[in-house]
Amino acid sequence: MACPYWDPTLDNELNNPSDSCLFTDKFAGNPNGKIELPNDNWEHEEGGYVIRNVGGFGGELLTKKNVYDVLSRKRHAQITNSKSRHHFLEELHGKCHSFVGGNMVKLITAPQDPLFWNLHAFVDC
């Protein structure tokens, strides 16, 4: 199985990242409200629909500098220690969840949004 990744650093370079072509019907669906995908009315297993509020919950997308800062660390502990905020991978990726909003904001519902898997294909590699 292959999972395409979402590189949020590319969208971060836009004047308004929420205007990215990613948030269109051609790719990941609309940016706000119930997402419309090729398989319309897709419900998650607890019922209800996948909701987004791109840019509405704050958050921010990763920058190329964020990626460089994380990859330039020499020890795993340097990216998993919350005291090193510029290199703390969990916080950096969490800001992407907040940027997408909706289901992506909560730990329990984040995997219901297909973008969760695309983001993690990038961050977890």
TrEMBL record:
Residues 113-124 form the Tyrosinase copper-binding domain. Gene3D superfamilies: Di-copper center containing domain from catechol oxidase. The keyword Cell cycle does not apply. It comes from the Eukaryota. This is Tyrosinase copper-binding domain-containing protein. Keywords: Copper, Metal-binding. It comes from Mytilus coruscus (Sea mussel). PROSITE patterns: TYROSINASE_2 (PS00498). Signal peptide: none annotated. Pfam families: Tyrosinase. GO terms for molecular function: metal ion binding; oxidoreductase activity. InterPro entries: Di-copper_centre_dom_sf, Tyrosinase/Hemocyanin, Tyrosinase_Cu-bd.
